[in-house]
Every structure is written in C-alpha cells, then in structure tokens.
Amino acid sequence: MAAAAVSESWPELELAERERRRELLLTGPGLEERVRAAGGQLPPRLFTLPLLHYLEVSGCGSLRAPGPGLAQGLPQLHSLVLRRNALGPGLSPELGPLPALRVLDLSGNALEALPPGQGLGPAEPPGLPQLQSLNLSGNRLRELPADLARCAPRLQSLNLTGNCLDSFPAELFRPGALPLLSELAAADNCLRELSPDIAHLASLKTLDLSNNQLSEIPAELADCPKLKEINFRGNKLRDKRLEKMVSGCQTRSILEYLRVGGRGGGKGKGRAEGSEKEESRRKRRERKQRREGGDGEEQDVGDAGRLLLRVLHVSENPAPLTVRVSPEVRDVRPYIVGAVVRGMDLQPGNALKRFLTSQTKLHEDLCEKRTAATLATHELRAVKGPLLYCARPPHDLKIVPLGRKEAKAKELVRQLQLEAEEQRKQKKRQSVSGLHRYLHLLDGNENYPCLVDADGDVISFPPITNSEKTKVKKTTSDLFLEVTSATSLQICKDVMDALILKMAEMNKYTLENKEEGSLSDTEADAVSGQLPDPRTNPSAGKDGPSLLVVEQVRVLDLEGSLKVVYPSKADLATAPPHVTVVR
Q: Quick one: where's region Disordered (predicted)?
C-alpha cells in the first residue's frame, strides 16, 4: 500500500524510471503539497534514478532541504536547478560530492550560510570538481564559505546578486584558486571593501558590484588581464571623479584611470586628470557634432570602426512610443523595458538569419534559457502604440503565435504540451526543443503576461512567443524591442544593452561584406512590394558609417507616472571601444 501511495503521489518518478529518462522537471501548484507531505524534502525515490543528468525542482515554497541521498543516488547529474524554493538557512546534509555536476542554481531561496557539513560539498577532495556555473542570487547569505574555491576549483561563473554579503573570503582571490572564473556578479549586497588580490583572477572578464557600500576601487583591478566589463554604479566612492566615471564611462576609461593612479591623489594624479579631461573633451565634441551634423561626425565614426549608435531622447521625438503597465503583472512578471531601433539592414544574404540566431544565443546565455529574462523583436510599422503590459487569465488571452493560427493561451500551451510529449516519445528522453522548453516557466501562474497594442491585439506572450502580426522580415529596418523578466529590472537592461550592441555589430558586418540580397516573394508580398527607402534608412548608404538610431521608450504606470526609461544615461555605458554612443 505504501509503495502504491508513493507511485500515485509521484507519477513523474515512475514515468522517468520506466522510460529511463535523463532529465526530470518537478514544478507546478500540486508540488508544494506533495513536498510538504514528504517532510519538506524531496521524496527518497527520486534518488533511485541514477541515469538523471538534469534535475529541476522550482517554485516550491515547502521545499526546505533536498533531503539525504542526493549525492549517492544521482552520481551522473550534470545540472541541478533548485530555484525559488525555501531552502535554508543551510543545506543539511550538504549537496556534494557530485563529481559530474556542471551547473548549480540555488537562486531565490532562503539560504543564510553554507558552513562545512551544511554547504555545497567537501573541499578535500573537491566536492564539485567539474562545476562551471553557480547561481546563489536572491538568498540571504551573510558570508561565503571560505573553502568555496577548493570545493569548486573549475568555476567559471559565480552569481551572488541580492544577498547580504559584506565581504569576500580572502581564499576566493588566492593566486590560482579560481583560474577559470570569468564572470563574478555580486550586485545589491552590502560589500564594504574589495581586496587588491582580485587581480589574481586571471580569467575575469565581467565584474558587477553595483549597489553595494564600496568606498574605494583598488587600482590592482586594472591588472586583471582579460577584464572587459565592470559595473560599480550605486556605490558611494570617496573619489567623486571616479564615482562619476563609473556612472557613465566605458570600462576601458575607468581601468586606465585606476592604472595611472586615480582615486583622487598620489602617484599618477596628473596623468589621471589628463585622462579625465580628454574624456570630457571627447564628450563635448560628440555633443557638438550631434547638434551640427557636420562631416567631423562621420570621420569620428570611421575612426571608431564605422559603428555609431545615436540615442534619440523622448523630448526630441515627435511621437515617442510608450508602454503602460497594469499592476497585476507585479505577481507574474513585473519588469519590462523597451526601445525602438531604426536603421537595421536585414535584406542582404543571411542577415536576417544571423539576427534571429543572435536572439537565440542571448536567450541561452545571458537570459539563462529564458529563466532570467526574455527578449522579443517586432516590426515597428506593425506596432500600434501606446502599448499595455498586463496579465490575463489563460482562457482570455488570445494571440496569433509566430507560424500558427490564432489561439487562446490555454489552448496554445496545451497544444505545446502535447507536442512536447510527442517529442519525448520519439526521442525516448525528456529533453525537448523549441518553445516547448519554456512551458514550465508558466507553471503555477493563474494569469499570463502579455503586451497589447492600441488595436487590442496581443503582440507578445512572454516567455513563450511573439505575434505573427509584428513578425520581423527581411524588409524590416525599424524595430521595437522588449525585454521582460520576473527577476530584476537590471537584467532587462543588461539584455537590452547586449541586444542593441549586437545589432550594431551585425549592421557593420553587413555593410563591410556587401552580401547579395535574397528577398523572397512571400516576404515582398507581405509588405505590398515596398522596400525601405534609402532616404529614411540610416544604414542605406553603402559608403557611409553604420548608423543605428535608438529611440527612448518610456514605461509608465496606469496613472502616467514614470517607472523606467530606456536607454537612460547609465545604459549602453559598457559599449566596446569601436562603438560610439552619441546622446
């Protein structure tokens, strides 16, 4: 009888065992009650599936601990995702050793500390010897385990955003401790000091320590040989010149300031002042050229690799696009930013394919498989503003999805679920492709988020699909971009930054390679045979600079109060040296 009860309570486990599945996802409204009945832990039967490579249990407010047996029962586990549960204050028993684990996501829990015996695993020998990505964001951690580097010596990405950390353990920056670490994010903590030993992170490329309590940035940071992107915004630095720079200058300028001895005094102060003055002169030149529109602007762009982003302020735009946000999205997917980009050239060769591929890559990487954020791109001519970002019940939300007929969200999700099940049967494993991979992100939601145009048509259903109405084609030159997230506003801005900079890079590539066009008859018919007018397309001049115009989009509440505008002065601040942003 007991075995029958377990089978009935956890049919997913019986199915996974019978079909020898390598991936398993446990989520949804019924999960919480079953975990509570199991004592706030995962059922022991789960740890009798030794073939599992991927395990996700998310959105379960009653899950306080994984439970004993995980390390012994799942030796081949590659990815373990335990997001948005109630794990904490520690992990008892500790997770490791998990010799094959590469991805560990414990974000959005209630972890306060990870001491030996209640943490990630042993240090000797390493409990997580193959771990590459560790996400501990959105917890309550007051300190990191001192032996983290010894437990996970091959770590490449460490996300600590949104905790209560006031310092890093010295062992983290010991020479050779984490030789592969390339991304370190610890925004929205209480960090008071950054050790000069951070220079020992030889592979560090991205560092985000925004919104902490740092008063100084060590000059040694400039000695990190591969560092490309830094974010120290929101810290009250003693050196006010440096504080101003971190809010608006490129990473290269900030590192040069540190390298020549900035921080308001001491060695190299004269050179630092000179560097700051040169930066100020450069910005004045750009502002002057923007007002006058003279030949000097094109010369500067050529020197910068023929890549120019011009930001059009809402005050300069006779008809700016706006997005109003309904309060009900707060409990579903509260964050959204938008932007209008004009001047894309998607007609030649594989330009459109490269553009769509770049979105897929952003979804996989920066958007963390759409779990952190989702982006969508639209043909601007088909977008009727103002837009409304709201949440609707699945049976009320209607959309014409890309490549499909009109359907209610409830019907669409059901159809995708059936297709996913068919995929699993054909491939004899639980992994699926396409939109089917993201269905679990809707689990537990009574309402679904959507973006509605002035005609009342739903043009976006994040994180699943866009509408056929605003589909981007080869003939598209002006686009509306949106990024939504259930996690944070900053990740929306980061994704938007990355998307726009990628679009600038693609326009440059298209200009330089001069591919032959391959416009299809179907796509030509879709826009009544009208091709973009070179007079209105800033990228049309083959011998001119590759120019994109980025128009600000305001996001307002229903009363008209401003929530966010993108791009603001702080956005697009980490553009690479060959991209010139004119504001």
A: 260-300, 514-544
CA pair distance 409, 258, nearest whole angstrom: 53
Residue (of 151, 119, 122, 154) closest to 136 by Cα position:
119
Provide the domain limits for residue 118.
Answer: 12-155
Q: Which residue, among 379, 514, 504, 374, has the nearest Cα to 448 in the 3D structure?
A: 374
Q: Which residues contact 285 (CB under 8 A, 6 or more apart)?
A: 296, 300
Rounded distance between C-alpha atoms, residue 394 and residue 458, angstroms: 13
Q: Which residue type is seen at 4?
A: A
Q: 430 with 16: CB under 8 angstroms? A: yes
Q: Which two tokens stand for residue 324?
A: 């109003």
Residue 467, domain member (yes or no): yes
Query: Distances from the Cα of 408 to the Cαs of 297, 436, 461, 485, in angstroms?
Result: 50, 17, 11, 22
The number of C-alpha atoms within 13 Å of 300 and in the hemisphere containing its C-beta is: 21
What does the block give as tokens for 400? 């014409």
**What's the chain's Rg over C-alpha atoms?**
25
List per-residue pLDDT tens for the chain, 583 residues long.
344 344 447 888 888 888 888 888 887 668 888 999 889 999 999 999 888 888 888 888 899 999 888 888 898 898 899 988 999 898 888 888 999 999 999 999 999 999 888 889 888 899 999 999 999 999 999 999 999 999 999 999 999 999 999 999 999 999 999 999 999 999 999 999 999 999 999 999 999 999 999 999 999 999 999 998 899 999 999 988 888 888 877 888 889 888 887 543 333 343 444 445 545 555 555 555 454 444 443 343 344 345 788 888 888 888 889 999 999 998 888 999 999 999 998 988 888 999 999 998 998 888 888 888 899 999 999 999 899 999 999 889 999 888 888 888 888 888 887 887 777 677 655 554 555 556 667 777 788 999 999 999 999 999 888 999 999 999 999 999 999 998 888 889 999 999 999 998 888 887 777 655 444 434 433 332 333 333 344 444 444 456 789 999 999 988 888 889 999 888 888 777 777 888 7
| 181 domain-assigned | no
Q: Are strands 183-185 and 206-208 parallel, antiparallel or unpaired?
A: parallel
End residue of a domain, out of 131, 155, 179: 155
CATH number at residue 31: 3.80.10.10
CATH of the domain at 461: 3.50.40.10
By DSSP bridging, strand 206-208 and strand 458-461 are unpaired
**Neighbour tally for 291: CB within 10 Å:** 8
User: Which residue, 155, 180, 200, sits at the end of a domain?
Assistant: 155
Q: Is residue 565 part of a domain?
A: yes
Query: Could you tell me which residues are beta bridge partners of residue 300?
Result: none
Instruction: Give bridge partners of residue 269 from the DSSP assignment.
Output: none
Residue 332 included in any domain: yes
Joined together, the tokens standing for residue 216 give: 């100084």
Total of domains in the chain: 2
Question: How many angstroms separate the CA atoms of 147 and 115, rounded?
Answer: 9
Residue pair 211/162 in contact (Cβ under 8 Å)? The answer is no
